[in-house]
Batch of 4 targets.
Target 1
Amino acid sequence: MSDQRRARSAQGLRMRVFGTMVALHGTRELSLGAPRHRALLGLLMVRLNQVVPVPQLIEELWGDRPPRRPTAALHTYICHLRRALSFGARPGGPSMLVRHQAPGYVLALDPDQVDAHQFERLVIQARRDMAAQDHRVAQDRLSAALALWRGTPYLELVDYAPMAEESARLEQARLTAVELHAEASLALGENDAVVARLHPEAQRHPTRECLIAYLMTGLYRLGRQADALRLFERTRAHLAEELGVDAGVELQRIHAAILRHELPFGDRAATRVEVTAGEDRADAAAPPQAEHPTAGGHEDVVTCDARTARSALSHERAEPGAGAAVPHSAGVPHGAGVPHTAGVPHGAGVLHSAGVPHGAGVPHTLTSLPFVGRTYELAVLGAWADAALSGEGGLAAVTGQSGIGKTELTMEVTRGAREAGHEVIGVSCRGKDGPAYGVWARILRQLSHTRPEAFRTVSARYSRLLGGLLSDVPSDAAEDVQPPLQAPFLVEDAVCAILVPLARQKPFLLVLDDLQSADYSSLNLLHLLTCRLPEVPLGVLVASADPRPAAESTPRTALDHLLGSARTLTLRLGGLSEQAVAALVATHVDADVDAEATLALHQRSGGSPYALRRLLSLA
């Protein structure tokens, strides 16, 4: 067959090696057969359009345990591979993409039909654009390249050395693309997007100094000098502990420039101004002040006096009166006094004694506070949710002490997901004495109501095994559901087998509040699901109290394993900054609040939104 005819025959064939290796003809996925058949295709794929000698293929396929007639066995595999790639064409057509050429075999395919080659071509073009200072075009090419990434290359074949080496090489190429994308975005002034994208990457690659440098730059430009400096110290400590080396010259240069406020802000300067409280300072230009580290470490710095703080909240995506209420599940019982750690006795008249005029218009019953002070975390989780619902499924966890605002943050993320048209399934894990898998019974019930036809189709084969989990009972009777426990792994596997195809039909976000209260079986099922999330457009967002410190001799719990897994993106919330507290107070107090009162409220609440709410209600 001529090369021209062969090229026409192969039109419509596409190969994906990011994630599980897939061959597509049009929209139809071709069956590539058993694992070793797929491995043969992978061995030819990593040397696309190159002849691979027969002895080399035999050694790489079977190692030191070849079959009795290895050459004949290899020929059988080649025949199967040709049939698999023929996609119904007449004999002698596309099957000859895999052809014999002494001294071995070659996979003859246009590189643009393979996602990995498309990825690398786009990155090379973006490098040229960057050299020409065309940052917008470079950013667009890099975004297109990174959108091709669906997971670890040759995911199911990394036990074979050639695919493992190629997978590692492509992962390094991906990190380079991420760094180039960050460089282009910084040049365009898109600092918030850089921070959101690089934060999870920095957690996974803490010694990647170029990546850390871009993240430090983005943090500094957003007015987060303290966060940038802490990131440098963590990186330096990690490099010393793991590799026995100090930070590189370039990273140290960035660090020194941040300390001296000499790092340029690029095309768009970051907005960084301070709180000026009190009527006598309303028209005064406040001198710049250094940002002070807080327990949270990521809070915004807002400029306003007490009368203009409401408008400043618009930068936090909060609308007047639209703040998320803190439900009972926030971790503090309703009607409880201010925690003793806040340093406030019952009925102490805190606001009056701190300098807020008595009767200044503070509501006596506060059901909510506007969402403020978590822009960084919201940006990170928003980027994570976008990626998860686009096929890079994963688990994200928000942790912190009771009342610190975990529920409010997850509600903001879910609101953004719903506004983008995604389905959100939310449940609370409270009720440790409930039945095993009670959390998942409620999740399945919600999905059966929102997608009745699809749910019935994918769950039919598991109805006998799952029993009560699939019962259509009223939601207030959910705690009475008791699935069979004879084969817990089969139950857990069946639930995953229902959720995964539903997500592939239409992506959705699972939100589990108070995960620390979930039963052991539900946590095990969640762990199994997270292992299956790569390439599935399903995100799982959880909120959990901080794990209790345990002695070295105490075994780790299922919750510890989930929150400490390398697969999990974990954000721990600390207290709000003094500036964020001032902005919150200004939205609820119809009078000017001086700096001393704001400081007192911040210190006594510890930056906890719940404690602040209780303090304001005492006025």
Target 2
Amino acid sequence: MRMKRTKRTGPMSAVLLSLAAAAGVSACGGEKGQLMVVFQTDMSLPKDIDTVRIEATLDGSVVYDEMFERLGSEGSILLPATLGFLTPDDPSQALRVRVIASRGGKDGVRLLREVLTTVPEGRTATLHMPIQFLCDGSAEVERDAQGNALRDAEGNVLVKNSCPEGQSCVAGSCVPREVDSRELPDYEAVAVFGGGAGDGDGLCFDTLRCFAAAASAPVDLEAFAADGTVCRAAAPSGDVNVALLTQGGGICGEIACFVPLDAESDAGFRVEAGNVLRLPVEVCRRAQSGKLAGLAIAAAGEGQCRRKGTDLPTCGPWSALQGGASTEPDASAPVPVAVAQVHPVSLRVAAGGVTWIAGATFDGEGMAREDGALKTAPVDGGEPLILGATQASPRDLAIDEARQVAFWTNAEDGTLRVVPLAGGEPRVLLADLEQPEGLALSGGALSWTELWGGGVFRAQLSGSGAEVELGAPEELTPTGTAFSSPYRVASAGDTVCWTYQGTLGRTDGAVACRVGEASVTVAAEQRTPREIALDVDGEGNAAAVYWASFEGGSVFRADLSGAEVGAPEEIVSDQGQLNGLAVDEGHVYWTRRDAGTVVRMPKGGGEQEVLASGQARPGDIAVDEATVYWINEGSPDGSDGAPVKDGAVLKRAK
């Protein structure tokens, strides 16, 4: 990792609003009070949040409404930031402040924090309105019956709260939105800006450095199951810093993502007698649902990092403080899109996001549990959206960008399913399949393999969006074939190619293609060919087929551009266990499961280049114009069958 000094590149201008004037009434004499609203975050900008809208109304009249975009980018506002309101002519008038945070622009609403209060007289009070990871998902866009976003006169989307009327999200729980300003603390800049006066001279909390040597710890889910109102975890003696270990939200290093919690805070953690951590209930709820990998706990105090509190904001490109250094991952190292995954098995990059399958675990009798999932995240990373949960051994997927849906195969229950990429209820398209495995999409048709049944099929799609339907399946398997266990499949234009993995330790695998109306065997006597990829020309047609032998350690190629399929050509050998394969306009890429490497080579032959090493059983791989993406399957399950949640989705620039 490398250290980066935080810079003050685009501070938010201090705003002090006279609510009497803003509401259209004259101010009277006397000493005015102030309410200083403080905005900060425990997330990473712009990865998690890139747009914030702040609205304020006084007894229903709008007094402030501003949109701040490109958060975390050069020239944007910096956090923490403050917004001051003067006491109105009638101090009893209600001030409502709403903070709406979005990702992917102002329409990608993620969370809402709302407070209803008054402005005190004769003093300046502090109101903290943090943008919290635990409240991610606390708001959504209002829509009409057809699903279209509703907008105000200025074109901004209308946002509704996920909490009941009169409540708002704090640390993942719905609490009353009304705050008594008499109970708010007096404003002190040093308590907001890391000990500084608000001119960038304070310190910030360097998350990656402070948790570099942290120990991981679980939350006590047994106790939570017994009493759902209390969330606890054990902590070592002495002062500590605590962070949530997420799947992609928060501040990410090379192998983990952290959301630091404020010490001695109801919205963070408190240390109780016997070194027990008291945590927000939402922490246990997320851990129980598998959305959190646990906690990171690190020593704090003398010779260590300072204890994180509300007075010590996080460091990062978004920081308004110059008095701290921000540790960032090595620019040459792989960047995590998602971490703490359970055995991911398949990956696609499309529609501005990365979508993958988290594999199922197995019980003591070798039966797959229904704990697999289909997940998606933006290409820049962030907390994944679960598109399909409790899946029975999901195996492969395909993305339809035009319809904005994802398809996947479930081997255990023999289904082919579809779900909108934005989230929604998954739907079964086909059932009673014989262990469906590979899946590919092109030209409005889905192709899939059935591992047990031995067949390869294609069916045309119809309909739009989530209402897509699948036509009658057409079998593509060559007549009289003796090959077994069709595995992965790839398609482009009118060409579909697939592998028969055969039997481990034997040369009974094969590769076949359907080109136009003819199905042909491209190569026989292969050693466990699994992964397959097509080289596609500028018109969307398959120019060549590539495949990789899991056991044999070879990559092969056959030309598809002529009237007949070309002879197989071995272009790479002695590569160990090949577990992923991709092709772009200039290179062929593969992953070595045994060596933990990601490798590429020019398609025309030449020097091999290791793009990443030290990977944990790397598997499926994908490329777009500028980036290489791959999955790490992670460590094998423990002796008790419990999964080790160290799988990951990673990327690096080409």
Target 3
Amino acid sequence: MPPAVSPDHTLAHLLEHNAAVHPDLPALSWRSGADWETLTWSEVNAAVARLAQGYASLGVAPGDRALLMMGDRPEHWLSDLALVHIGAVPTTVYGTAAPEQIAYIARHSGARLAVVEDAAVAAAWEPLATDPGTALESLVVVSGADPGRGHLDYAALAATPEGDAFGRRHDLKPDDLLTVVYTSGTTGDPKGVAVTHRRMLANLAALDSLIDLPEHAAHICYLPLAHIAERVLGLYLPLLRASHVWMCDDPARLVEVLRHVRPPQFFGVPRVWEKLASALRAGIAGLPEEQRAGIEAAMAVATEHTACLERGEPVPPDLAERFAAVRGLALTPLLEKVGLDRVVWASSASAPMPQEVVRFWAGLGVPVMDAWGLTESLGVATVNTPTAGFRLGSVGRPLATVEVRVADDGEVLLRGETVFDGYVDAGGAVRPATDADGWFATGDVGRLDGDGHLWIIDRKKEIIVTSGGKNVSPALVENTLKEHPLVGQVYAHGDGRPYLVALVVPDREVAPVWAAARGIDTGGDWDALVAHPEVNAELERAVAAANARLSRAEQVKRHRVLAGEWGPDTGELTPSLKLRRRVIRDRYAEELDALYRD
């Protein structure tokens, strides 16, 4: 069982507890070539102690800031803990950050140390070591360190004999900074969110009380550790639960890792659930008609079963029997294809999920529990749970440590033990961001229903106001369009305009299967497939079907089909796979303007 969290504890107490009580349990695994390597909790403790001494030997002192820029690899996970245990304050920088963003965070944080993945990444950091505007003194490189370029070798630090630096963990105080997490900066410069040991431990305890999982459950760490969600789920919560963390350093290999681990819990942002659903739909579409009919019948039973749970009603015995039967015969074999056959806790956050995707997973017997929060709420503020009740489409009820209120203009406000202390200024001081009564304005627009479930409508700043004065949620419009399987990504546009238009990107998994079923052969040429008249005619029908369900102001009058899929690497999505609306608007300004021309 997790250790009892005391008000005078810090994160260091959790590692110490695990090393003493669960020394031989697996703690951290990662792929090494074709095989997997694993450290137990006692081995993690020893590795962190050596690294702590190594970083201390570079002059890293309590209160010093340190920056990490790596993928989800063991060196990242262990370095973060080592820095925390010597009283330093680590911050992970997104791997997709542009050089100017890296420079801003380096200057703003006052970090003396940076630990980066390889020599190629180090190239963006080297000029900062001689920049008078930064305090950067040491650049540690994990792979391919070049002393001639001023690099320090990570392997040498990791082999440092244990000394007295690890003992600093006993000097940590609950109100010390655990980390500073920088927001993604989509609407301006990134802001440094102060996270203390006290508030994070309160968040972990509140979240853990709502999650009914097997002891020492496996977790796949694949989202960026710069994001608060993976930081909580992939680093801090496993320390509380003595979980087994599996590192996936390449999101393209996520399904491969899922199949290997078959975890009892899985968190995915909406785009991940959409991609997994598209892959399964494509597989179902390729089955003989009789098998497809059998799966559809099984999904109808699972949908009925989920609806019963959602209403909080006891499942009738005959429905329970039918669900058990179809799950074993039809649904489990499907879920095995993506490694989700043992999942008992499926969750999502970051942005509203299309209801069609939610219903698809419910039809497989995997109700995806939506949660909501921000970096400023230390990740989770509200959550749906199978045990405490859920409403698919809502983001659940507040944690015990937080209050939620909706202001007169619809903005969601938060107050409580797990709301952050404030933003860190360039000088290191923490600037409160709550009002006189302790409420934090989240920037999200939502509503609370009669049962206390929160429903998020959109970001306040992203609400479209048409030239006719109508307020429109772009997320609602985009998710309605995405209910057609052929539609992969959508950007709705229309602020200050007389009507809405949209950019539509077809789904790369579904479109080829859809085309093959209709005898359309473009020889694997994606651009030709996107330009095919039948594909475009079907997308026209998809827009028309969505418009039939939307109000007049929300309807998309014209759209443009694009061939290029959006992603973090190309800049249209954040690292957590949300639309960067400003980037898309600027990049496709000509195409959007053309949609308003006669």
Target 4
Amino acid sequence: MPHPKTAEALIKCAGPIECSLLPRLLHVTEAAAIAASYQMGRGDKNYADQVSVEAMRRMLNCLDMKGVIKIGEGERDEAPMLFIGEEVGTGEGDLEVDIAVDPLEGTNLAADGIPGAISVMAMAERDGLFHGPDIYMDKIVVGPEVVKYEKAHPDERIDLDAPVIRNLEIVAKALNRNIDELVVVILDRERHKDKIKEIRGTGARVNLISDGDLMPGIATAIRGSGIHMVLGAGGSGEAVLTAAAMKILGGKMLARLVLPTVANGGTPEEIEKEKAEKMPRLETMGITKDNINDVMGIDKLAPGKDIIFSATGVTPGILLKGVSLFGEGDARVHSITMGSSGAVKFTDTIYIHDKEKTPLRMA
């Protein structure tokens, strides 16, 4: 009789979406990453994004499923494909899924050849992912050790509205570290100037990044990454994708929707103008002036029970290597995939068309 703690238990508890679609989801992000990699460093972020979107959509439409884009490239009138509400897949089979995509997370990073660009997406059963509008989310992300610590110390909990020092004290205790040994990742934006000063005032170290705080968020749940917390306001779509992965990895994330003019300290007139433009659309998603400021946890952002996630590196990053191109359309790609069963895979894939011309080599 096999031991009850073997991998068989995880394999058997995988849901139908994870069993049927996760292996194919890897191919989707790989194709998008390879397409984007050909434009790496060429300085045209829009074209890099376009080719990755096109590749991702082509691959999605090969999957036997009834998929709906919930987090995508924008509204129907803003994006030619992978727009919010677009139906993808062959329409065959019984699987009905909601999808969050970012074919090229870090368009500027890819265009300039800077580390951290990825192709990423998540899926879940219907209503399994938050239907987020295209505005910002203010967030805090920490790993599973903090969740464990909170369970043992219910009076000490991470709080989006708490002073930074309060949250860092909890993380330090959970990780058995000093605060000056912690690293906090935050986007290098003017709106974060005071927050950065506050973090530094605690003695913690700050890792400023120009774009792409999705993978740093995931890295908080992986020991040895050197990242212990992610803070700040960024895209809501990226926040939902982060939440999908963090739910699988057992981490914690708190987030609140915020209009860009509010986050960036706009004038009262600018804020009111943006409210007039965006609130009607937000209200169709169930977001009103009464609940827009609500703090959401992972179970609100990613309520699904059968969630799958895949990310493939375009340029080298914290957890993933970048795409290596060999000519003739051959490539080597590095990805992370995971599902609600708890299984996490780092995959190193090599695509070679002609093995005689390009034989496999040991790394």
